[in-house]
Amino acid sequence: MNDLAILTKAMIQERKDIAMAIIGGFIAGIAGVCLFAASGYMISQTVFAPPLYTLIVLTSLVKILGLLRAASRYGERLYSHRATFTILSRLRTSFFAKLVPLTPGILGKKRSGELLARIVGDVESLQHYFIRVAYPPVVVVMVFLATVLFTSAFSFWMACLFVLGMLATAFAVPGLVLLGQRRIHGRVRQQRAVFSTEVTELLYGFRDLKVYGQLKKREQQLQQTSAALAVEQQAAARHLLRGQSLHTFVTYLISWGVLVLGAYLIMHGSLAGVFLAMLVMASLTVFEEASAMATLPAYKQDSEHAARRLAETVHATDKQPPQPSGVLSVEQAFAIELCGVTFQYEDEWRPAVKNISLEFPPGSKTAIVGPSGSGKTTIIELLLKLRTTTEGRIRLNGISVEELDEASIWQASNVVLQHSHFFRGTIRDNLLLNEEQHHSDEVLSAMLDKVQLTNKSLDDEVYEKGENLSDGEKQRLALARAMLRKGRLWLLDEPTSSLDYVTEQRVFRHLLTQAVDDTLLLICHRLTGLEKMDRILVMDQGRVIEAGSYAELMEQKGYFYEMKQIELQMIGEAGSY
Question: Which of the listed residues 265, 294, 319 is the one where a domain comes to its end?
Answer without folding.
Answer: 319
